[in-house]
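On clarity, I found the account of how folds are encoded harder to follow than it need be. Since the whole study asks how a given chain folds, the encoding of that fold should be made plain. The format is easy to grasp once an entry is in front of the reader. For illustration, here is how one protein appears when written out as sequence plus structure tokens.
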Amino acid sequence: MTTNSNMDAGLGHAHMGQQVVPPNDYAGPFDTNNKAEGEPQMNAPETNHSVTAMSAPVATVALPSIADGSDGSDDWSTTDEIGPANRLGKVVPILAGQKAHQVHPPTSGTPFDSQRAVSPKSGAAAKAKSIPNVLSADGKEKDSDRLIRLAEPAFLFHNHDQEAFASVEVERGEETWAVRSNNFKHWLTHQFFMDSQGAPSANAMKEAIGVLEAKAKFVGPTIRVFTRVAEHEGNVYIDLADEDRTVVEITPAGWGLVDDAPVKFRRAKGMRALPAPVADGSIDELRPFLNVHDETDWMLIVAWLLAALRPHGPYPLAALHGEHGSAKTTTARVLRALVDPNLAPVRSEPKDGRDLMIAAINGWMIVLDNLSKVADSLSDALCRLSTGGGLGTRKLHTDTDETILDAQRPVILTGIEELATRGDLLDRSLVINLPAIHSSERKTERQFWAEFGEAQPRILGALLTVVAGALREEPSVDLLHLPRMADFAVWISAAEPGLGWERGAFMKAFIENRHRANEVALETSFLTTPVLKLIERGPWTGTAEQLLHLLEPTVPDSVRRNPEWPKTARGLAGALRRLNPNLRPLGVEISFDRDNGRQRTRVITIARQAPSGPSAPSGSVGAPAR
């Protein structure tokens, strides 16, 4: 395959092969050091050269013969020689190749030059010893053993959670499935039918899957499996999820399209393809498709998108508020379409934290649309999803086995009212208010999405170029004041040059958003007014029970009857702990301690102090250290 590519002088393309380490007792041959030789050098912009992909060697493996009644235990051939054919005369080809790369360097920065090391497809490179063909009493091969034999072309491995996976070469590329998934079972059933023109029994399939799962866990190597966005050796990889299994590779030098990425991607049900990105686009082309008029909100949305293209968090939560007809749902759909298109792009509130985590594992982005409020349990689950945290639940059909669900994901919430009201969730949120849309500005759905579809490849390409620039600049960024979600703040500060923003512009917008979120937390808490009135009389110290009795008469009966008003001393102490970070910028500090008396009673002290917390940044905030 040949492609033309115009590059900066000296620009190379780094791409390391998949690094997999089999266990010590691994029986089959395993080559992870295969490198392509003669990789062509990238050329200067004024010269248009043809770059031809290097074809990796083709190896074949022959299925063991059972025609002579042997046990078929001989190793399959791992050389270019074709071993003995089986009774059907079939040979399984093992192919490995690579697609030529087209790299689009960022608009600024130093050239990136290195040699590209390529390893063959994992499903072809690693082969275990074949399973003997066990014959039944009538001399026929058992269905379960035939299924195991027919699964030999699959590359079996496991992830760090000991979940078994199989990578299989299909017509257009490689697919990675969980061994117990329906996709892998369907592939295996098809293999069986093509071999015998029949169907395996349910029991035979169950037995074969059990053996293949054991092989993946105890013989196969440990490899991480990603959904949509991945990271390897400092580079970012994005699965387009198209029919050609194309992946975008982003390095500090630029980005390009590859079909031999050194990472494993799984494609969950509902994932849809991203368009092939186009270079020379502009992020400003996104403005007409977002109902955002405030420049601060525009910067926050772009920052959220760039965070969503990062392989690891923490990820800020985008809370979109606005009245009826402010295009909250459409805005959420547009943002998801640029990173993680899905058959169901927006969803309703999950039943519980377990359903939320399952949705996160099966997609890169979570969009909860048209919410009326966020319950405390959902708020806690969203906090874990933003900054990291797992969920343990009992595995089905077992008494003691546990399934661990762990994920970090970008999240969007939409609703008319302020949804994130608890301080811990607000600390992780970008609060964005969408204005009402005038009737003269409205478009039909058909016109809107047709125009967006035409601009989407260029907008995506512009985002990828900014990500490449952020990878290059991130090591040099040293913020003077690290806020909550510090990694996110550093990442976007590193992206400022590629966005054309002034140094420190994002931090100003981010701190302004934090002030806005703090105001929301204070306005929505029933304790804010009574606590501020109490402190006007001077410092106060006492137990939580004493404070509850003191505050109750100061609020109306309707407030005391509200479920969110604390009914116990413990509930009051917990609510004050949550509110304390929001009161601190106002100069109010709540401390919790034990007195020195005999009973060692826990006491609460409310006192004035110098205001702290987010403050207006100086001009040097966000400037990198050089």
Remarks:
- Confidence is low (pLDDT under 50) at residues 1-131, 396-400, 614-626.
- The CA atoms of residues 337 and 512 lie 28 Å apart.
- The chain has 16 helices and 22 strands.
- The first strand starts at residue 2 and ends at 5.
